[in-house]
Design a protein that fits this description.
Layout (H helix, E strand, L loop, with lengths): L2 E12 L2 H9 L12 E16 L4 H4 L3 E6 L5 E9 L2 E7 L7 H6 L1 H4 L5 E16 L5 E14 L5 E12 L6 H12 L2 E3 L5 H8 L16 H24 L5 H18 L6 H36 L10 H13 L2 H9 L2 H15 L11 H24 L5 H28 L1 H39 L5 H28 L2 H7 L2
Antiparallel strand pairs: 1-5, 1-8, 1-9, 2-3, 2-6, 3-4, 4-5, 6-7, 7-8
């Protein structure tokens, strides 16, 4: 994977041309500001960057920038991914003629089958100042850029401007940016409205990027549901590059987006035609299952490691930790390659296109035109009744495999009821939020029970492997017994947790 750098910066523009000329001739003295002991002039670099995007500017619309730059100390390909206001991750790759494969993967969920093309060329004369602490360590880099932007698509246009950028050094204190900003204000600068050079170049050459706007909220059920679906599709697309970069929790968050979409399609079949949504739901199930191979193993490994860590050393009989590592390595072999292959597949990209098409031309049913509060209230209560039936059925079964399966089905129903309440929050407000929290408590308990079921199956396999290798099986049996006891405890706790979650007051607050 290419190198990645977290970029925390502020951009400023001059309030008058006179202020710009004065700053470029003699920048203000920042020594003594927020621990800045010295300012080192690093000279001027000539930078030449070509920015790439699809013809309809899908990257720019989502705040991404992709460029090939020569000049300066970091010549090469750069992809900037938004993290938070003023914070971006810059992924860098070597200077090549063609877009590097790693970076092409990171933009694939946006560009799909369309190749990025040259959109804008930015030539900058950059004066660089290093802001140093008393020990000579770098606190931040201040750069003053004289920029010439040329649009490379028809009709051609050119724009010029001067701007200042202050970027924190690694692990720098964001408070420094606030202090520097006050000093720059005195020098005739103001925070820039443009989030990036590319955004400003597009705006000033008459090719401003399209904005991602949710559907208008007219208070109808259809509008509220479509806004929710827009959010989940955007989350799905945004998590794609995070999964490719193997960022913590990325697979989990991407699977959550798929589950929320599937849940919404099922819960709101009276708003959207299921002839259109059912096939999409099956494709979303496929993506979640494929991504889950690695994620589920990771969660299971953490549970077993924690269980081993909780044992006294005298009860860890034999090479249990090395046995666990071997078992995990075998089960995870190729799982990441499999996940990446899914994200590069025609089938997955086709799903993203189909979701976009659904949102662009939603197959609305008559209920979509009704007031959102009434429609969403009924939908949430339907999912609640479904959950109640599954819990009653599960609690009526004797202990054993059949009951475990029934409790797992109840867990999935609890998750659906929770997601339905969360999606209804814009229409129903705090009562829906409280209801969602109650459903989450049920889901969490049942989830711990199901994780115990899965862990016991894994422990049985580990014990068999240990036996075949001539190793003691005592520790695996001990952990199995602990997991069995935990599952029994969760089953005893369920009636009380369910009674609280099913309290009439919660349902009444929804207005049902």
């Amino acid at each position: 994977m290419a190198d990645t750098k977290r970029e925390i910066e502020r951009k400023f523009e001059f309030t008058t041309a006179k202020a710009g000329r004065r700053f470029l001739a003699e920048p203000p003295d920042l020594t003594g500001t927020a621990g800045i002991a010295a300012v080192l002039d690093r000279g001027t670099d000539d930078l030449d960057a070509v920015y790439y995007d699809t013809p309809d500017q899908r990257l720019a619309a989502d705040g991404l920038t992709l460029r090939r730059r020569t000049g300066g100390s970091d010549a090469g390909w750069h992809l900037k991914l938004p993290v938070a206001p003023g914070v971006r991750d810059e992924v860098q790759a070597a200077l090549t003629d063609d877009l590097p494969r790693d970076l092409a993967g990171l933009v694939r969920s946006r560009v799909r089958s369309t190749d990025p093309v040259p959109l804008v060329r930015l030539q900058s004369a950059r004066r660089v100042l290093h802001l140093l602490d008393a020990d000579g360590g770098l606190l931040a880099e201040l750069s003053a850029d004289e920029v010439r932007a040329e649009r490379l698509t028809l009709p051609r246009a050119v724009a010029t401007w001067t701007e200042v950028e202050v970027e924190l050094a690694d692990d720098g204190d964001p408070a420094l940016l606030d202090a520097v900003a006050k000093q720059l204000k005195k020098a005739g600068l103001a925070p820039s409205d443009a989030p990036s050079k590319l955004a400003r170049a597009l705006a000033e050459t008459g090719a401003e990027a399209p904005r991602r706007t949710p559907p208008p909220d007219d208070g109808t059920a259809g509008a509220v549901l479509l806004a929710h679906l827009h959010d989940q599709v955007r989350a799905l697309v945004a998590q794609d590059p995070a999964v490719r970069r193997d960022l913590p929790d990325a697979v989990h968050q991407m699977r959550i987006a798929t589950r929320r979409l599937r849940s919404a399609f099922r819960t709101h079949r009276r708003i959207l035609d299921r002839a259109a949504t059912d096939p999409l739901g099956e494709e979303l199930r496929w993506v979640a299952a494929e991504l889950g191979v690695d994620r589920d193993q990771e969660v299971l490994l953490d549970r077993l490691k924690d269980a081993l860590d909780g044992l006294p050393r005298t009860l860890a009989d034999g090479p249990v930790r090395s046995r666990l590592r071997t078992w995990n390595k075998t089960r995870r072999a190729g799982s990441r390659r499999r996940a990446l292959a899914v994200l590069d597949s025609t089938r997955y990209l086709g799903l993203l296109d189909a979701l976009d098409a659904l949102l662009a031309d939603p197959p609305l049913r008559p209920a979509a035109a009704k007031p959102a509060d009434a429609v969403f209230r009924k939908a949430v209560l339907r999912d609640y009744e479904r959950l109640a039936g599954r819990i009653d059925s599960a609690l009526g079964l004797p202990e054993g495999e059949e009951r475990d399966l029934a409790l797992h089905d109840a867990r999935k129903a609890a998750k659906r009821a929770r997601y339905a309440a969360e999606a209804a929050a814009p229409a129903l407000g705090k009562p829906a939020e409280k209801f969602a929290k109650a459903m989450k408590s049920v889901q969490t308990l049942l989830g711990d029970h199901q994780d115990s079921v899965v862990a016991r199956e894994a422990l049985r396999g580990l014990a068999a492997q240990a036996r075949d290798a001539g190793e003691p099986g005592f520790t695996w049996g001990l952990l199995y017994g602990r997991e069995e006891a935990l599952a029994e405890r969760r089953e005893r706790e369920l009636p009380e947790v369910w009674e609280k979650a099913a309290a009439p007051g919660l349902r009444d607050a929804l207005g049902g």
